[in-house]
Amino acid sequence: xxxxxxIRGGSLVDGTGSEPFTGDVAVxxxxxxxxxxxxxxxxxEIDAEGHIVTPGxxxxxxxFDAQAGWDPLLTPVxxxxxxxxLFGNCGVTFAPCKPADREFLAGMMxxxxxxxxxxxxTGLPWDWESYGEYLDSIEKLGPAINITGLVGHCxxxxxxxxxxAVEEDPTEDEIGQIAELIGRSVAEGAIGFSTxxxxxxVLPDGRSIPGTFAKEAxxxxxxxxxxxxxxxxxxxxxxxxxxxxxxxxxxxxRAAGTRLLFSAPHAPGSNxxxxxxxxxxxxxxxxxxxxxxxxxxxxxxxxxxxSTDMLFPTPAWxxxxxxxxxxxxxxxxxxxxxxxxxxxxxxxPRVEEGSRTTFWLGDDDRPTYTRGAEESLYGMAKAAGVxxxxxxxxxxxxxDGRSMFHIRFFNQDLEGLKSFxxxxxxxxxxxxxxxHVSQIMDSGxxxxxxxxxxxxxxxxxIEEAVRRMTSAxxxxxxxxxxxxxxxxxxxxxxVIDLERVAERQPKLVHDFPGGAPRLIQKAVGYxxxxxxxxxxxxxxxxxxERSGQVLRNPATx
Length: 557
Hints:
Blueprint: E1 5-12, E2 21-28, E3 31-36, E4 44-47, E5 52-55, E6 57-59, E7 82-87, H1 102-113, H2 117-123, H3 131-139, E8 146-152, H4 153-161, H5 172-187, E9 192-196, H6 216-229, E10 232-236, H7 242-256, E11 259-263, H8 278-286, E12 290-295, E13 300-305, H9 315-321, H10 325-333, H11 335-346, H12 349-354, E14 358-360, H13 377-384, H14 388-398, E15 404-410, H15 414-421, E16 426-428, H16 445-456, H17 462-469, H18 471-477, E17 493-496, E18 502-503, E19 507-509, E20 518-520, E21 523-524, E22 526-531, E23 534-538, E24 541-542
Parallel strand pairs: 1-4, 1-5, 6-7, 7-8, 8-9, 9-10, 10-11, 11-12, 12-16
Antiparallel strand pairs: 1-2, 2-3, 5-17, 13-15, 14-15, 17-22, 18-21, 19-20, 22-23, 23-24
Helix pairs in contact: 1-2, 4-5, 5-6, 6-7, 13-14, 17-18
């Protein structure tokens, strides 16, 4: 009997960290039926000779909570080999939600994650109240890849406390209600709980989001409830108070007895440590706590170009910002307007200083994220004997407004990032897909890891890079049915040309509800991506197949 699909003759990188070997992979239905030598033709065959064959990648930090409502293809990550994505990070989610609170949650998501409020309110069905009902609603929309969600601190706290959740502490009784609600959400299928302690993440009125300053009693009660229900804990920390934050995370881990996942932008260490996290991580692991940090494998930050709103902070530039793209291009082509734009920026010293962390992505098909300090916007301007704003404008004029500059916000030092990336408690991620949609485009990180750190730099072997993006990340979520190429596992598979794989230049499109803008980034080198046995991507192009599932917490299944 012929198999449904046979991937033939590839270099199998099975996700376990073992050395690659040449072989075939047979798929029947949603499951891998055989790995090795497959006799007989399949109903469909993919010639993988000269390619690597890997498990589908797992993206542990996305914000597809809203986008899943109108973009079932879940781009950009589905262009980059991701077959399972975790959303609901950073404490901001749309469930649990009382009908009267929908606008509050939509407004919060807009200011924290730059997802347009109107797109949220009009693009989602809003036919849920509980977290389980939210998952049911998203599942009906038929995603192309697997998605799984965390229940957020903000929505849960607001559900119990209402407006008081923003600035007040819960009573003892309310702490119990919040913990019970979150535990119930995990029992209904949430993979775990997320919280956000960054004061800079604010509501439309400027106040920090609910839960930012939650005290120990509340966090411990929630953690215990999550652990009892079999969920994980995801955290965004207040990195300006890192020692206390890591101590709190330790207490949460003790209370929960579960896996801990936190966003870990690189912070240089002292006293011989590679990073500022090292002592706390060592102590946690010595205690037996299961902790993983997530970091982007390159610099993360904002995109400045004529099509984005990351422009210069002067009155003349504010007028340009009001124009559409064609109007902006016409404005900078006008000599008088351009002179005024330059002179206003020259009067602000901090702009020149900020140009030290701003880098041109280049004019090739593949963006350049690895330029050194001498190639910064500041360095380019000094070499040319002009002001950075003049270089910026020249690049826009040369490219008819298509050029982009990358403003590095975190993980700025790629050399310093090397040892941090290879630490055994670090996993790659924080692409933030689905969020910061008109400001940031870091979602192609999987392709960058393969092209830069594996192919060009040799920092990782291909087997270790794939292990971190597949089985290691799936383990954090508690999924043992995917993440490796093995018989009986779910058929989430990539076929990749390792010599070609790379990100493409980011660009702005207007395909959100109401024509709202967002940045996208495509890829090359993906001969095929298979999700649950169906080919969803062929030769870097979506096939139209939507075979993904909403994955509920396996501990509560």
